[in-house]
């Protein structure tokens, strides 16, 4: 088989796209290699959410370019959100590229590779697919790898929210949902091949089912449907938008045992003027009310979030509102970002009045606060037995396995190496907290397990 080397940046949508590309390439005679030197094909699946993400990609290509000079038969392609955003322009910067494919051209990857091999004319395929529905055709036959204990399933693509800072609506196009039956069929196949946890994916995952489906199914109904498939021990979804959290979704958290008690719910800011400028469509109070409702229905629920500091015009007092909201909610973890102006987005036209060093100082403040809250929240689990789905061998020295608790904390633990394997759900006694991670010791099989 020929060898493909793949590098993936960005969110889980990109990770899922890379898995799909690996599968499609496998059926065109390519096996994945971790050694870039021996590759016949190099693919970089890119992200353009912040400027830093872009810079990383350009510096990576700086390193890859000489490989192409030494091996003219090597095929090199750039896929993902930067491809969609920049298109042809990238060819001017990197004329050695053979193809540039946007996220909607993933299915055409084998055709792009074939073309590159037959004629050395680079192609740029960045048109959005015009189909009403979003479908991922099943590929017959064995894939290159079995799914891990936790498997992603795309359920909705694109985003129609147009937050004023965000490139996703431009890079991933309009929101489209997959038919529920197609999703159930994929989940059944994954479970048959060893998956125990299903993570439903979408940039705006809980906007699922709003329109365009031949057989309309609401997001919460889909959750009941997936949880009802035999073998699905755990169910999660990401990323949600506060505006699309319904009463029915809150009830689903309460009523579906397999639906884990964790919700990633980006808030971005704790200040109403900034939220309005961001076009998030809700106030800080509305977000806090939603959190209060979730916590009253599902007392064990853990929350995590995304926050942007230094949005154009954000004053010191407005930034304080974000700190206050973080304290009030008590997120277990957060992804924290300094605002980065992006092409095509309305916020890029706003006056970027927050100096870089103020942004950096604010970022450090939210990081410090989050670390304190994480430590305090983790304390509630310390010394206790928690249920862990083993995802694999621990990378950390001194621990044998790693996995997650329902509330999404990562756990590295020792013990049980002769009897356990990935996919088992076990009891672990927590002994130490390191960031958003526990260290612990195997404390026995959990029920239900391995049925
Ligand atoms: N769909 C998700 C998140 C998408 S991108 C949602 O709606 O919440 C992931 C995170 O990157 C965002 O939540 C936001 O916090 C951050 N982000 C997006 N654009 C950004 C920008 N221009 N500058 C800084 N952070 C940004
Ligand atoms: Fe971007 Fe907003 Fe859509 Fe999230 S909801 S992907 S932040 S536009
Ligand atoms: Fe990045 Fe595209 Fe995801 S911009 S965050 S890879 S949707």
In short:
Helices cover 33% and strands 22% of the residues. It is of the alpha/beta class and 451 residues long. The strands form 5 sheets. The chain has a 6-stranded parallel β-sheet, with helices on both faces. A 5-stranded mixed barrel has the order 15-16-17-19-18.
Shape: globular
Content-based structural category: alpha/beta
CATH topology of the largest domain: pyruvate-formate lyase- activating enzyme
Total strand segments: 19
Number of helices: 13
What top-tier CATH class of the largest domain fits best?
Answer: Alpha Beta
Oligomer: single chain
Tell me which CATH architecture of the largest domain applies here.
Answer: Alpha-Beta Horseshoe
**Unreliable sequence segments:** none
Per CATH, the superfamily of the largest domain is: tm_1862 like domain
Mean pLDDT figure: 95
| Estimated helix fraction | 25-40%
Q: Write out the distinct hetero groups bound to the structure.
A: S-adenosyl-L-homocysteine, iron/sulfur cluster, FE3-S4 cluster
Q: Strand content of the residues, in percent? A: 15-25%
How many structural domains does the protein architecture include? 3
Head-to-tail CA distance between termini: 37 Å
Query: What spatial order of strands do you see in the largest sheet?
Result: 2-1-3-4-5-6
SSE order and pairing:
Blueprint lengths: L1 E7 L3 H15 L3 E3 L8 E6 L4 H20 L4 E6 H6 L2 H5 L5 E3 L7 H10 L4 E3 L24 E5 L1 E2 L10 H4 L4 E2 L2 H13 L4 E5 L17 H9 L6 E5 L8 H9 L6 E3 L7 H7 L5 H14 L4 E8 L6 H14 L3 E6 L17 H24 L5 E9 L7 E4 L5 E5 L10 E10 L2 E9 L6
Parallel strand pairs: 1-2, 1-3, 3-4, 4-5, 5-6, 7-10, 10-11, 12-13, 13-14, 17-19
Antiparallel strand pairs: 8-9, 15-16, 15-18, 16-17, 18-19
Bound molecules: S-adenosyl-L-homocysteine, iron/sulfur cluster and FE3-S4 cluster.
